[in-house]
Design brief:
Elements: E1 2-3, E2 7-8, H1 20-33, E3 39-44, E4 47-52, H2 54-62, E5 67-68, E6 70-72, H3 77-91, H4 96-110, H5 114-121, H6 125-133, H7 139-147, H8 152-158, H9 164-177, H10 181-208
Parallel strand pairs: 2-4, 3-6
Antiparallel strand pairs: 1-5, 3-4
C-alpha cells in the first residue's frame, strides 16, 4: 500500500478530460468496496508515477482514501506511454483527438511505425493511419468532434477541404443544416469541384491576356 499523496499522474497520459460524474460514481463504489485492482506505478523522485490506474487514483482522492494498493514496476518512458495508451484504449476512455495524439506521440517520440503501433494496440494499421489524419483538422473542427457536435464520419469528410478556412466554412454549413455524413461528403465534393473550376477559368483568362 502506498500513500495517495505520494502518487503522481504521468506526463504520458493521453486523456485530457476526466468526467466528474464518472469519477464521483467510482468514488462511491470505492467507499463501499475499496480499490480492488492495484494501480501500476514506477518509482520517481519524491514518490511514484502512475503508469496505469489514474482514473482510480482520482476517484480514491474524492473518496478520501489515504492509501492505495499498487504494483511497482521498473518501466522506461516508452513503456509508460504504451501502457497508459493501451489501458485507455481498452477502456474506450479517449476521445478521437486524444487517441490520435497518443498515436502521434508514440510515432514521433519513440520512432514507432504505424504498423508497430497497430501491433502494440491490437488494431489494424489503417485504423492507426486514419485516426492520426484527424490531427489535420482545423481547431474549430477538432473542438466540434471532441464535444460530440459532429461524428468521426463528418470529420473525415471535412478532411477533404482545401484549407482550414474552407473547412471551418463547411463545418458551419454542416452544423446549421444538420447534415448527415453522406450529405457532408457531397457538400465537400461540390465545393472542391467549384473551386477547381474557378481556378481553371482564372488560369485560362490570364493566359488569354495579350502581352
Amino acid at each position: 500500500m502506498v500513500s495517495t499523496d505520494l502518487l503522481k499522474p504521468n506526463a504520458s497520459q493521453p486523456r485530457k478530460q476526466f468526467e466528474q460524474s464518472a469519477l464521483e460514481e467510482l468514488a462511491e463504489s470505492i467507499k463501499e468496496n475499496g480499490v480492488i485492482q492495484p494501480l501500476i506505478v514506477r518509482k520517481i523522485d519524491g514518490g511514484f508515477e502512475i503508469v496505469a490506474g489514474e482514473h482510480r487514483w482520482r476517484a480514491a482522492k474524492i473518496a478520501k482514501l489515504e492509501k492505495l494498493p499498487v504494483i511497482i514496476r521498473t518501466s522506461t518512458d516508452q513503456d509508460v506511454a504504451e501502457l497508459t495508451l493501451i489501458e485507455n484504449i481498452q477502456r474506450e476512455d479517449l476521445n478521437p483527438i486524444e487517441e490520435a495524439e497518443a498515436y502521434e506521440k508514440l510515432a514521433e517520440r519513440f520512432g514507432l511505425t504505424h504498423e508497430e503501433i497497430a501491433k502494440k494496440t491490437g488494431k489494424n494499421r489503417s485504423v492507426i493511419t486514419n485516426q492520426m489524419r484527424l490531427l489535420k483538422l482545423s481547431e474549430n473542427t477538432k473542438k466540434a468532434l471532441v464535444s460530440g457536435t459532429i461524428t468521426v464520419g463528418h470529420a473525415r469528410a471535412l478532411l477533404a477541404a482545401s484549407s482550414p478556412g474552407q473547412m471551418d466554412s463547411l463545418l458551419g454549413k454542416v452544423l446549421k443544416k444538420d447534415l448527415t455524413v453522406r450529405r457532408t461528403e457531397a457538400l465537400v465534393k461540390k465545393k472542391n469541384a467549384t473551386a477547381g473550376y474557378v481556378c481553371r477559368a482564372t488560369h485560362s483568362s490570364l493566359q488569354a491576356v495579350p502581352l
